[in-house]
Automatic annotation (TrEMBL):
Listed name of the protein: Class I SAM-dependent methyltransferase
Entry keywords, A to Z: Lipid metabolism, Methyltransferase, S-adenosyl-L-methionine, Transferase
A Pfam family the protein falls into: Methyltransf_12
Keyword Methyltransferase assigned: yes
GO biological process: one example: methylation
EC number, as in UniProt: 2.1.-.-
PANTHER family for the chain: CYCLOPROPANE-FATTY-ACYL-PHOSPHOLIPID SYNTHASE
Annotated source species: Streptomyces maoxianensis
Family: Belongs to the CFA/CMAS family.
Length: 268
């Protein structure tokens, strides 16, 4: 059951006609958009050839303004709490146990991570992110919630090769609102390595901005993919991916895929 309205799924936000229509409907957003486009253009020029370096600069700039906005758009603490809760509740409904060993890719400032850390046994949470600035904020979140005894491992990365992590270790890998900001080669890199760190029976859940029209991106920041593209990419790396219908019923604009090793696999 795909609840997202059909016009939203076929919209191409990179087209000039879409931008003009949007500007006419939301004139107050034109100036902020132009400022963002100018800033992003400069970052793209400075870091040409490296999406990760470019996006790290975007995160540094956004985090300096508001860490909550940097991980989710709206700078509201209530929204920050609600989206973290949504991610946490979903995984608990899907059987997350304190004994699970979790890797969170793009953990941000622990919007959901602090809840996972609180729930999991000590040492069972690893959070990685390309942005040192947001990881400093993550440490503040950890202190705020008094979770030092849980000994989570938080570390910056500049690729998704996951080469510093052990084989077959993680029962749950989670990436929320990360591939919605990633070009296909970043997702490809992640899918080519995540199978190695996934424990037997483990799974990797990630959200993405779904389109049923042509795939496109806006400002090198927001990427829209067709579900079959991502399913085929997982298959290319010997993994299977399933669309999470129950996630569609939740108040969140992105869709979710669950990737695992072929075989009996996790219960969805
Ligand atoms: C929209 S925020 C979401 C953060 C967190 N998952 C949450 O739900 O609050 C996206 C995060 O992913 C990180 N990120 C983006 N691309 C990444 C990559 N290729 N590898 C690791 N982290 C990445 C960003 O730095 C940012 O912290």
């Amino acid at each position: 059951m795909h609840k997202t309205p059909a016009p939203r799924l076929s919209r191409n936000r990179s087209r000039l006609a879409h931008k003009v229509r949007y500007a006419l409907r939301h004139p107050q957003r034109v100036l902020p958009y132009l400022r963002r486009a100018g800033r992003d253009g400069w970052f793209r020029f400075r870091h040409r050839g490296s999406h990760i370096a470019y996006y790290r600069a975007v995160m540094a700039s956004d985090t300096a303004r508001s860490p909550a906005a940097a991980v989710g758009g709206a700078p509201s603490h209530d929204r920050w709490l609600a989206i973290g809760q949504l991610q946490y509740d979903y995984l608990v409904r899907h059987g997350l146990k304190p004994q699970d060993r979790m890797l969170e890719i793009g953990c941000g400032n622990l919007r959901a991570g602090w809840r996972f850390i609180e729930y999991l046994e000590p040492g069972h949470y690893v959070g990685i992110d390309i942005s040192p600035d947001i990881l400093i904020e993550a440490k503040k979140t950890l202190v705020h919630y008094g979770l030092q005894d849980k000994m989570p491992y938080l570390t910056p990365v500049d690729n998704l090769k996951l080469d510093f992590l052990p084989d077959a270790w993680f029962t749950v890998v989670h990436a929320h609102s990360v591939f919605s900001h990633s070009p296909l080669e970043v997702i490809d890199e992640c899918l080519s390595h995540v199978g190695r760190v996934l424990a037997p029976g483990g799974f990797f859940d990630f959200t993405y901005d779904r389109t049923e029209g042509s795939e496109h991106q806006v400002l090198g920041e927001d990427f829209y993919y067709r579900t079959e593209t991502l399913i085929r990419l997982a298959e290319k790396h010997g993994l299977v991916a399933g669309f999470m219908d129950d996630w569609e019923r939740l108040p969140h604009g992105q869709s979710k895929l669950r990737v695992s090793h072929p075989g009996p696999g996790p219960a969805t």
